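check these C-alpha cells.
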Amino acid sequence: MTDYTSSNWHELDADNSGVSPNGIQGGHAPSTLAPTIRAIMGAAKRNYVRTNPFYTTTGAGNAFILTYEGAPEGYVEGERYTFFADRANTGAATLNINSLGAKAVIMPDDSALTASQIKANRVIEVVYDNGSFVLLGFIDQDVKLNGTTSANTLTLTTALAITSGGTGANTVAGARTALGLATVANTASASDLSTGTLADARLPTSMAGKTFTSGVTIGDGDLTDGEILLTLATDRAWTIRQRGDAASATLSFENTTAKSIGLSNDATYTAPNIVLTPSSVGASITVNGSTVWHAGNDGASSGLSADDVDGYHATDLYRDNAAFTSTGDLTISNGSPYVRLQDTTASAYDARVRLDANNLYFDGSSDGTNYAEVVRFELDTKASYFPSALHITTTSEALRLIGSTSTTDPYISFYQSTTRKAYIQYLDGTGNNNGLRLLNDVATGGDTALTLKNDGGTQGLEYQVNGTEYTVLHSGNIDTYDLAKYYTGSSATETVLPLGHIVMAHDGSLNVARNASHAIRIWSGDNNRYVASGSGTGASLSGTWRARGSNAEFDLVIFQRTA
C-alpha cells in the first residue's frame, strides 16, 4: 500500500515511472491500469481522512489513540493529522497512531500541554515534527502568549473587578474612585494630596523599618530631634493596658529628688515593683524593695555572697571553662536528647550521642552540622548495628559469643537486607552436625554446610547437602576408601602399585580379552617394560589387573589394577 508520503511517489510527473502500482510506464499493458488507479484512489482517500476530522480518538487519561482503517506505514516529518478529540487532556499528553508508538503532543514552543488545551469533541490538528506532534490552530484552546505583546488601544467592554486584579472601572477617574484615590491628582502621586483626611482603614497596621528624623509627639510638649515625648499632666504614670481591660501595668516617674522610674504590674504606681534610680542618687535597681546586684554594686559590704549560689560554692557548679566532676546523676530530657562532643582540632570530626525512638546512636560529623550514624544500639531488641566496617585490634581474644544458658548455642549470621544468607554456629554433642558449622542458607539444591565435628579424628570434617551428610576426603583418610589412585614414586622395580594405577604390558600371543584379569610382571631385561604373565622372569605386580584394550597387533595391552 502506497501513500502520498511514500518515497516511491514523486512531485515531478516524469519521475512517477515505476512499475505499477508505484508508477505508470510507457507501453504498459491495460491490465496494469487498474492497480495504479486503485493506488491513486486509496492514497487520495487516506490523505483526505487524515487531514480532515473523520476519525475520533480513543484511549484513556492523557494517552490518546487514533486508529485509521488504512494505517500509515510510519511517522513522516511534516505530515498533518486532523481528528476529533473524545475527551479533554488534564496535563502533558501523547498520541499513538495505529500502534506506531506514542509520541508527545506539544505546543509550537516545544512546551508540554497543560490541562484542557485539548477539549472534548473539538477538532484537533497536529503536525509530526522531530519526534513529536505539534498542536496547530488551537483556536478553541487556552491562549498562550510568549515574548512581548502590545496593542495601540485595548478597550475592555466590561470593567475588570478589583477582586480579579482590575480597577473596577473603564476610565482613569473611575479607577481612582474605585481604588479610593479620588483625592490624588491625575499624576497618581501621593505627594499631590493637599486636602482631605486619610481614613483609618487606609493606614497600615504596622510600619516596619521606618526612621523618624524629627520628634514624634504622644500627648503634647516640646521635642528635640529623635525624641519621643510622653507628657504627664497631674498623674505621674503612663498606663499600659490590653484593649477593653482595666490597667494591667504602669510605667511611672517619681518627680522628686530621686527622680526614679518605676514599673508596676498593676494600676498602682505609688509602690512600683521595679525601681530604677539615677546615678546622682546611687544608681540602684530594686525589685519589690530588694537590691539587684550587678557589676557596679557587688563586692565588699554589698551584702552579696558572691562565692555561693543557692548555698553552693562556684567549684560545685558546672562551668564551661573548667573541668567538672559530679558524683550525682545527669538527666537530659526532651523529644530526642543528645550530647555533642566537639574537637577544636582542625579537620577533626565531631561526635554526638543521641537517643531517638528506642535507639541509642553514636553519630559522626566532618562539618559539625551533618551527622551520620556510626553505631546504633536498638534498646528494645538489644540488637547492635554497625553501618560500616568494625575493626577490632588485639593480641588476645577479640570477640566472644556466650549463650544465655548452658543449652543455647549462639551464632553469627550474614544477611542481605532482611534475608539471612549464611551463619556460623557451634553445636554441642558428638553426632552428625555437632561441632563448629558453616552453613549456606541459599545454596542451589538445598542448604549446604561444613562441620568440624566434636568427635574429631580423621573423619572429623563433614559436608552436608540438604540434610544429607558426606565425609570429606583428605590425605589423612583417603586410604581407608576403595578409590582409584596413582603411583607417585620413582622406583623402576616397584611392584606394589595403588588401586587405579595403569600400565602397558607386552602380551605376546595371549590375546587377553577386554576387562579380563591377568598377572603382570616386570621385564627383567630392562627398566622400561611390563609383560603379561608367562613372558620374562621379573617379579609379579601385586593385586588384580584387568585388560582395558590392546593395539591392532594384540601385542601391547593396557592393564589397570582393580583389587
